[in-house]
Amino acid sequence: MTNEEDNVNELFSQFKNKHVNVDLRGNYQSEGKIIAVDNYLNLVLETENGLETIKGGNIILISLKE
């Protein structure tokens, strides 16, 4: 792994345990707390309906909830 890849890991890992809104392809949205994230931006969210996995390729935008 190169230093640049290590930096990406650190940036993504900053979002763990944060509440977010996620805009997805096909005009779908999801919101919850990020439990896990990987280098491909695949997410595991804790939502009010349980755990939800989101493939990184379907994500358009992630925004932090205040």
UniProtKB/TrEMBL annotation:
<protein>
    <submittedName>
        <fullName>LSM domain protein</fullName>
    </submittedName>
</protein>
<dbReference type="InterPro" id="IPR001163">
    <property type="entry name" value="Sm_dom_euk/arc"/>
</dbReference>
<feature type="domain" description="Sm">
    <location>
        <begin position="10"/>
        <end position="64"/>
    </location>
</feature>
<dbReference type="InterPro" id="IPR010920">
    <property type="entry name" value="LSM_dom_sf"/>
</dbReference>
<dbReference type="Pfam" id="PF01423">
    <property type="entry name" value="LSM"/>
</dbReference>
